[in-house]
Fold:
Amino acid sequence: MSEQTEKLNNLGAIEFADVEIIRQMQAHKLSVMLEYLQLHSPYYKTLFADQKIDIKKITLDNLKDLPFTTKDDLAKYNDQFLCVDKFQVADYITTSGTTSDPVTFYLTAKDLDRIAYNEAISLQCADSSSRDIFQIMITIDKLFMAGMAYFLGIQKLNAAAIRVGPGTPNAQWEYINRFKPTTLIAIPSFIPKLIEYAQEYHIDYKNTSIKKIVCLGEPVRQSDFTYNELGKRITSQWNVKLYSTYASTEMSAAFTECGHGNGGHSHPELLILEVVDENGNMVKNGESGEVVVTTLGVEGMPLLRYRTGDLCQVYYEKCSCGRNTTRLGPVMGRKQQMIKYKGTTLFPQSIFNVLDMLPQIKIYQVEIKRDEFNNDKVTVYLSNQNESAHFTQELTSLFKSKIRVTPYLEYISETDLINRVHKSDRRKTEKIIYL
Structure:
C-alpha cells in the first residue's frame, strides 16, 4: 500500500471509533482550544475575565456554563475574534449576510488545510474516492468559502475537479460531455433546469457519466429523510443519488450524508456539536433544537459555543454505515426566519416545498413583510408566464392542503423576477426576502 493511499484510508477514521474514544479526543481538544483562546483571542480573553471563567474547570460535561457566541457578537467585534497577526492570514472569507451583517473570516494556511481535510472526509462519507471526477457548479471566488473548500477537499482526496462555477446549463452540459465527471457539486434547485435544458436539446442525460450529486445550500430531504418535492423532482427524472450537506462559514466544517441517507454526519475531530432547546439544554435523540458548534483546531478565528440559529433534529445512535458520529437532519428553518401567518407558524422551506411541487414554476421569490399590526404578510412572486385562473386555483389548493394557509400571489414579468432573485452583487439567489 502506497503512503498516499494509506493517508487517504486514515481520513476520518475517528468517526468509526468507539464513542468513549471520540469523547476523550474531544475533551483534550477542548482544553487545548480554551488555552489557545485565553492566550490569543482578544474577544474571549476579555469575556473570560469579565465573567470570571476559570477555563481549567471547563469540560464537556459543563460546557453549558460558558456563554454562547452569537452572530451579533461576530458582527460587532469582528476583528477581536482574530487570534493571529494579519500577516499570517492566507485567505479572506466573508459571510453572505443572509440574516445579519456580513462578517469577515480570516483563514491561516493551517485553517485551509483543515478545510481541505473536512471536505475530503465529507466526500468520502458521500461514497466518493480518488477515482471520482467532480464538476464544481458553485462559486469558487467572491470571498466565498464553499467552492474553494470543495476544490481543496477534492485535491486532498487526490481526485479531479472541473471548476465550471455557476454557469449556464449549456456550459455545464458542454463540460459534462467533454470531461465525463462522476459527481456534480451543485445547488439542487439548479438541477431541474439542467434536466429541462437536456430534454429541450435532446441530450441523453440519463446515460451520462453522472452518478451522484452533492447538494448544498438547500435541503432535498424532509425530516423523516424521505425526499422533499425538490428531491423527488430530480430523482424521478434522473437516476442519480443525492447527498445532502449542511455547513456554514462560521463552523468551517460540514455535515454530509453517507449512502444510507439518514442525516449529515458530524466530524468530531473538527467541532463539538450541541443541539439545544430554548433553555440551552441538550435535546434528546430525534428531537429538534438549535445547532450550536464549538470549532476545534481553528487557528485564525476559533469560535466557542456559536449559535447558528439553524433548527435541526439530532440523532445520537450509531448509523447503519458504522460511524459513531452524531447526525443532523435537514435544516427545518432558522429561528429568526420563523413566520407567523394567519395564525399558523411555519418556516420558508414549507412554502418552497409547495412551490417545488409544480414543474411549471421555474423561478419564484417569497417576500415577508410586517404589517401595521406586527403580523407577517407573505407574498409569492411568480412569472406572469404562469398566470392563469387554472394555475392560480391549482397552486392555491396546494397551499391550503399542505400548509393550511395561502400566501398572496403576485405575477410579474420573468425578467423582473430574474433580476429580483439573481442580483449581480449577491453570491446567493434570493429565494426569500424580509422587509
About this structure: The longest helix spans residues 19-40.
